[in-house]
Amino acid sequence: MRIHALIRPPVALAPGILLLLLVAEAAPPRLRVSDNHRFLIQENGKPFFYLGDTAWELFHRLNREEADRYLENRARKGFTVIQAVAIAELDGHTDLNPYGHLPLVELDPSRPDVKEGP
Hints:
Layout: E1 2-6, E2 17-23, E3 31-33, E4 40-42, E5 52-54, H1 58-61, H2 64-76, E6 81-85
Parallel strand pairs: 5-6
Antiparallel strand pairs: 1-2, 2-6, 3-4
């Protein structure tokens, strides 16, 4: 399974939403809007079926192993998209994640606190 992150600016999506496309291929398909502007299609013209599951606090509440298990489970069930927020509302910007990190440097949304992964 390959997980491909598709990040779009808040203008295109609700603010703060990060979409993960779950793709069981060597390389994820490139997507584009169809000529009639009504559908997502792959580069070869084949329609992309958007079957999404929502895990709003995926990045905030789960550790890496739990997130991998969740994403693998959803891919096995045929989901093609996982919707999650980069920063959870309410206390998401001040509650520590499972690794003891906050998402922002000094609570400044223009300064994400990026950490090295495994």
